[in-house]
# Entry
Amino acid sequence: MSEILVVPLIRSKQTEKSINGISTQVVCTEFSNYIFIVLTQYGKIGTLVSVTPASRSGDISTSMFTTKVLLGKEEALTHVCAKHLATFVSQEAGNRPVLLGLALKDSSIEAIKAMKDVIKSCQVW
# Structure
């Protein structure tokens, strides 16, 4: 007798939008333990950053976030962009960590704000 393996459905959404004249693609995928987001203006995954919540002083209601570059170039701007783009996702997803692929031509404040809106439009959490 063979067993039937039931694989949970992985929810994913994607979209494309022009931000400051640059084609920007977003793919958001929900896994049981992570939210995976690819945000690219190059058509590639780019630098892979883990954004993880950590409670401060034992207070769960006050979260701080740590970023760690897993693959790609280690730059201060990468950490800043990752925190701005992924913090709200983690908070809305019950403080799950976010794995973020970033490949950006435009990392201006205005572009990052617009990218957050595009990420919200692909919400799977």
Summary: The mean pLDDT is 92. The first strand starts at residue 11 and ends at 19.
